[in-house]
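hi! just following up on the protien thing from before. the input was this:
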Amino acid sequence: MRLSVTQLNNQIKATIENHFELVEVEGEISQVTYHNTGHIYFSIKDDNSLLNCAMWRSNTKNLKFRLEQGMRIVIYGALSVYTPRGEYKLIASKITPSGVGDLQMAFEQLKSELQQKGYFNKNAPLPKYPTNVAIITANPSAALSDMLKIARKRWPLVKFYIYNTLVQGTQAQYEIANKIRLADSNNHEVIVIARGGGSLEDLWSFNTLSVAEAIYHAKTPIISAIGHEADVLISDYVADKRASTPSNAMEILLPDINEHLFMIDDMIEQFNYKMANILQNKELVLQNLWKLYKLNSISTQFQIKFETLATLKVNFHTKMQNILSQKQLLLPNPSAFNQKMDNILLSKRLLLDKLRLFDDQLENILTKKSSQLEQLQNAYRLANPQNREKFGFVEITKDNTKVDITTLKKGDKAQISNTKAKVDVEVI
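and the predicted 3d structure came back as:
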């Protein structure tokens, strides 16, 4: 089968692009060109071969460093064939420095493993006003100095306990984990793990399983403040709170004392304003109550009554005087009137004397009649059979016939009775 050049190149293009959709290639940059269109053209090599590469402008925005000749890199991309020239290139979608790729892969694997175990669900609340904080970092260090400087400005009431530790190197991860466990056992309110910026290799101690487990099992809330804002590490995922920088950890953890002072001043001002209004209102209420009290007090009521009585007394005397004056005009000659009144009084005295004499005579009669009645009552009592029974008198019967007691013999059966009772007896 005879093919044209174009047909052959198209078949080669289809074969290569289908079989090499995603490749990962490591090599050394031999030459690099930053085109004014925003594309990057370069080539990589090893000891025996050379490979042309390109990265389109749409992907260069994700490139965090500048490509330079002699740099060893790892490229993630796909092979592509340019048919008109029969050339193929590796089109890069991602480029990382060599060596970092292995760490990144380890990071992703550990991250996935811990996420499945639930290590990233740790989210204990931070205290609102901490007073006892542990800082795990290198001492001395710029990160520690910056944190303490910010802390003194924001909230000078807090006390810090510094746990000096290695923050990079092969042994750093184990020392950091031990210091976390030590601080957790000392009853601090918060633990801050801090380190300044650096390369991924420098920060790698905080991407290890030993540090992650120490953070996860700690009962004390932990803030991870490692590197710069762009650095996101395993410790950030496991900790209760992530801070973009060590200084940011102090801003997250500590309240701003100036804001609280302003708030307190505002509260005091509002309190004074409200209290002034309340006191003013209460003063008006008290004044009204005092007026009501004065109007309704006992002394005021007595005063009102006294004034009313005085008015009534004056009116009474005035009216009585008027009445007496009017009656005096109606009276006859005073001397004749007095004589007439004396005669009336004399006749009344005589009548009174007669009534007294009648009373004495009536009293004598009543006395005599009372004496006679008493004599009759005594005679009645003596003659009454019921009264005689009180002295032991009873009636004796034998065979339903009244008998004399002297007629009874030993062994006779009889009955004794009075008006109230009857008893069967036998003579012994």
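Residues 389-426 form one domain.
The chain has a mean pLDDT of 87.
cheers
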